[in-house]
Amino acid sequence: MKPPRKLHIKSYGCQMNVYDAQRMVDTLAGEGFVETANVEDADLVILNTCHIREKASEKVYSELGRLRVVKDEAARRGRLMNVAVAGCVAQAEGQEIIRRAPAVDIVVGPQSYHHLPELLARAKSDGRALETEFPVRDKFEFLPPPRPEAIRARGISSFVTVQEGCDKFCTFCVVPYTRGAEVSRPAVKVVDDVQRLADHGVREITLIGQNVNAYHGEGPDGTAWSLGTLLRRLAEIPGIARLRYSTSHPRDVDTTLIEAHRDLATLMPFVHLPVQSGSDRILSAMNRKHTADDYRRAIDRFRAARQDIAFSSDFIVGFPGESEEDFRATLALVTQIGYAGAYSFKYSPRPGTPAADIREIVSAAEMDERLVRLQELIDSQQSAFNKAMIGKTVDVLFERAARNPGQIVGRTAYLQPAHVLASADIIGQVLPVRIDSLERYSLLGELASLAQSATSQKPASPITVSSAPRMGA
Ligand code: SAM
Ligand code: SF4
After folding, report:
1. Angle between helices 227-234 and 255-263 (to 10 degrees)
2. Strands 106-108, 417-421: pairing kind
């Protein structure tokens, strides 16, 4: 029997890339590949890249420089190592990669991962292979389902892609160019995937998509299902204790989604809803197709449906033309909403996007200064949110043994890590935990009681805080 070939895969960027990396591992398992954490041992190295900001794509070229040395060293020892670049940099800069990086054998865009086996064969016969087409059919129709042993090894929480691509064309963003037009997977396929994951012990599902609440996959009844309808169906699957989704767009918040939050105890009351800016002038220049007030109204609808709901967001500072007044509108919005956390980025011009041609750039010094001010505000909200957990009893889904011996770590409804001293038997269970203290971003607590725990193992256990603490006005 031939020894297995070894695959080393390194993923950058979003959750979609994490999920795609797993699909590539599953596809190549059929070709006799097993994963290795050690790049020097690998017969195939895949860099699964991100193109969203300049820094993210620059990393790829420096990593390829390092890989060339590793590959040459392998060759000296008489071993062939193939190097593949996948993901959004592959899609956007395929020819450039082939030109600049002689170590690369394969370039494969995000829609073509099911072709990896044949691209490997092509690289072997022709030297190099590139595929960055946008096929008409959904790649998920061709990718193999995850193997039971891989599901179990990946733990109790899993991503499931329900939607890919984007039709929104925000002026700063490369996604519509690298991931293509929005495509939603049929509901039945998503239900099958989630059922299979649940059958092998997965307890938490995060549905992912670039614009996940634009989901409109075909339902079994032939109508287009919304994300809210899909979540309602998934909540019926036994064993699934928690449902989440990411990333949503404020424009696509519809009544079915709000009602899903109102009705489904398994749908976690934590929503990532990026707004990017609090200034209507900048939102319009970004082509976000919503105002700051539209965003506030969307938040109010969620809050009316579920009192304990909390939010995170994405912000861009220094978008071309952003004045101090525009930036203050962002700070005012953050103060008013009160976030449990948020990501903030300096604007990065991306080649080929409309905003990259706008002349009125914000200086690097101003961008730095604004980013610090925004991050200070967000950090203060996040730490107030975390501190407000102390003394409360909250449900925690336990995931794995912590680094500290004897501790098991899980997550609250708001994705805060929570540590308790307990045996590993609790992994996979949702149990109430009394929170005693906070260490940086982690909560420390005790299992509330064995008596309570027996009842809270039911998948649909509700959150035990009565309302999410709010910061700001
Ligand atoms: N679809 C999501 C939405 O509409 O908010 C976001 C997807 S994008 C992969 C993730 C985040 O990256 C965005 O929310 C934005 O804050 C940030 N981002 C995208 N393009 C950027 C750019 N050119 N410069 C800085 N940040 C950027
Ligand atoms: Fe990019 Fe805008 Fe689409 Fe989000 S909605 S992926 S930011 S174009």
Report:
1. 30
2. unpaired
Q: What pTM value is reported for the model?
A: 0.91
Q: Where is 420: in which H helix or E strand?
A: strand 417-421
The two structure tokens encoding residue 392: 């409360």
| Ligand 1 atom nearest residue 210's Cα | 1
Q: What angle do CA 425, 431, 433 make, to 5 degrees?
A: 115
Name which residue sits closest to atom 12 of ligand 1, judged by CA: 52
166 lines ligand 2 (CB under 6 A): yes
Query: Which range, of 2-16, 294-308, 409-423, averages the lowest pLDDT?
Result: 2-16
Q: Is 274 in the pocket of ligand 1 (CB under 6 A)?
A: yes
pLDDT, position 466? 41
Ligand 1 site, residue 249, Cβ cutoff 6 A:
yes
In sequence order, what E strands does 29-134 have? 33-35, 44-49, 82-86, 106-108, 129-131
Identify whether the C-beta of residue 35 lies closer than 8 Å to the C-beta of residue 9. Answer: yes
Query: Which tokens belong to 271?
Result: 């929503």
Indicate if the alpha-carbon torsion angle 347, 50, 164, 308 is positive or negative.
negative
Query: How far apart are the CA of 53 and the centre of ligand 1, in A?
Result: 8
